[in-house]
UniProtKB/TrEMBL annotation:
<dbReference type="InterPro" id="IPR058624">
    <property type="entry name" value="MdtA-like_HH"/>
</dbReference>
<protein>
    <submittedName>
        <fullName>Multidrug transporter subunit MdtA</fullName>
    </submittedName>
</protein>
<dbReference type="Pfam" id="PF25917">
    <property type="entry name" value="BSH_RND"/>
</dbReference>
<comment type="similarity">
    <text>Belongs to the membrane fusion protein (MFP) (TC 8.A.1) family.</text>
</comment>
<dbReference type="GO" id="GO:1990281">
    <property type="term" value="C:efflux pump complex"/>
</dbReference>
<keyword id="KW-0472">Membrane</keyword>
<keyword id="KW-0812">Transmembrane</keyword>
<keyword id="KW-1133">Transmembrane helix</keyword>
<feature type="coiled-coil region">
    <location>
        <begin position="145"/>
        <end position="172"/>
    </location>
</feature>
<feature type="region of interest" description="Disordered">
    <location>
        <begin position="47"/>
        <end position="71"/>
    </location>
</feature>
<dbReference type="GO" id="GO:0015562">
    <property type="term" value="F:efflux transmembrane transporter activity"/>
</dbReference>
<dbReference type="Pfam" id="PF25876">
    <property type="entry name" value="HH_MFP_RND"/>
</dbReference>
<feature type="domain" description="Multidrug resistance protein MdtA-like beta-barrel">
    <location>
        <begin position="251"/>
        <end position="334"/>
    </location>
</feature>
<feature type="domain" description="Multidrug resistance protein MdtA-like C-terminal permuted SH3">
    <location>
        <begin position="339"/>
        <end position="398"/>
    </location>
</feature>
<feature type="domain" description="Multidrug resistance protein MdtA-like alpha-helical hairpin">
    <location>
        <begin position="144"/>
        <end position="213"/>
    </location>
</feature>
<keyword id="KW-0997">Cell inner membrane</keyword>
<feature type="compositionally biased region" description="Gly residues">
    <location>
        <begin position="61"/>
        <end position="71"/>
    </location>
</feature>
């Protein structure tokens, strides 16, 4: 035990532990130096010579958030973009998600029982109302029709004879040559045969109808789906799957929902007799599939969702809309005419509410609270706070404060940049006084 204790305290074991501690210390120092170098490079080379961009503010020269205190970008030049407020029309729209719904989806079934002898259609074919889709063997029904027609002719002959007998009996009865009972019996026989003839005629008509049902035709214009049965199978009216499904494709509808809060302004437009245009976009909302019109509004609100259903109608000759397809719907409710509009990027939101940075003629910016209206095509209507021609910051606004100086190279007071083309500027923060 004494030797083990002395060995554990030997100089060699102590040296090994010291070496491990030294290596860990060197590694920690190296990591700290690399991190410090990365921070140094990011602070002194961040942004480089990047120009103004309407989609990012990381490319601003200098400035930005100052981790060591002071206002953002204090004393440094920032890259910002400026655009002029213009006057124009902004469509007022309502957006929704919708499902393409066919106006007629018909499961083609046989109304009689029999063997299929023909299916003269191609899957996916476009058919018209009345086009032949299937043929049932008509021979059993032709035989039955001939039998009923024979019964009808026989009973008709009996009826004719009974009527002649009745006429003779009535004449003899007037001469008191026969009893009244005989006359009454002859009359009853005529009525009996008349009923039999009517029954026979009904059977003949029913059999003719069955023969017509042997030709199964499309009841609507539409597109044929996949067939559910093949030639040679025995079909009956009770078959649940039917023979094929025909779906109407043109015109076609889209069912969508809107919040009940939008119902009042929608009904106001409809009461005024407005025809409201509806645009259907693809799932991504980037491609227009069809232009249509609002057809109807449902008569009740779904209490579980607080929404109301609407149906829009579309012409669909090219088949861009497909039943059960998911689409984005834009309902064009109205148009805001002569509004002051700015790019969407100009409108900021914060503690003051909605606001913009307006560039004044003295080269400084002022924070202006605005009331926004409808937005469309990358533009927002400003209902109050700005006038057409006012210049607003559209890029780099998050680096500015009220009163920041914005010298615009080559720009004279009163000049306005072209609409939709932000001008690159450099802004120097005004020193606090």
């Amino acid at each position: 035990m004494k030797k083990k204790s002395e060995l554990s305290r030997s100089p060699d074991a102590t040296t090994v532990r010291s070496t491990h501690r030294h290596r860990w210390a060197v590694l920690a120092v190296a990591i700290a130096l690399v991190a410090a170098g990365a921070v140094f490079l990011a602070r002194h080379h961040g942004g480089g010579n990047a120009g103004p961009s309407a989609s990012t503010h990381q490319r601003a020269r200098g400035g930005g958030f100052n981790p060591f205190g002071g206002p953002p970008g204090a004393g440094n030049e920032l890259a910002v973009g400026v655009a002029a407020a213009t006057q124009g029309d902004i469509p007022i729209t309502l957006s929704a998600l919708g499902t393409v719904t066919s106006l007629a989806t018909v499961t083609v079934k046989s109304q009689i029982s029999g063997y299929l002898t023909a299916l003269p259609f191609q899957e996916g074919q476009v058919v018209k109302k009345g086009d032949l889709l299937a043929q049932v063997d008509p021979r059993p029904y032709e035989v039955q029709l001939a039998q009923y027609q024979g019964q009808l002719e026989r009973d008709q002959a009996l009826l004719d004879n009974a009527r002649r007998d009745l006429k003779r009996y009535q004449q003899l009865g007037k001469q008191d040559s026969i009893s009244q009972q005989t006359v009454d019996t002859a009359l009853a026989t005529v009525h009996q045969y008349e009923g039999t003839v009517r029954t026979d005629q009904a059977q003949v008509d029913a059999q003719k109808l069955n023969l017509a049902y042997c030709r199964i035709v499309s009841l609507v214009d539409g597109r044929v789906g996949l067939r559910q049965v093949d030639v040679g199978n025995y079909v009956t009216p009770s078959d649940t799957d039917g023979i094929v499904v025909v779906t109407q494709m043109d015109p076609i509808s889209v069912v969508f929902t809107l919040p009940e809060d939008d119902l009042r302004k929608l009904n106001k437009r409809l009461a005024a007799g407005a025809k409201l245009a509806v645009t259907a976009y693809d799932r991504a909302g980037s491609e227009v599939l069809a232009q249509g019109e609002l057809a109807t509004v449902d008569n009740q609100i779904d209490t579980s969702t607080g929404t109301v259903k609407l149906r829009a109608m579309f012409h669909n000759p090219a088949g861009e809309l497909f039943p059960n397809q998911f689409v984005n719907i834009v309902l064009h409710l109205d148009t805001l005419t002569g509004a002051v509009v700015v790019p969407n990027e100009a409108v900021q939101n914060g503690a003051p509410g909605d606001y913009v940075y307006r560039v004044k003629d003295d080269g400084t910016v002022s924070l202006v609270k605005v009331t926004t209206g409808a937005s469309a095509d990358g533009r927002t209507a400003i209902l109050s706070g700005l006038q057409a021609g006012d210049r607003v910051v559209v890029d780099g606004a998050d680096h500015l404060t009220d009163g920041a100086r914005v010298p615009i190279p080559g720009d004279k007071p009163g000049d306005k940049p072209a609409e939709g083309k932000p001008a690159g500027t450099t802004a120097t923060q005004a020193s606090a006084s």
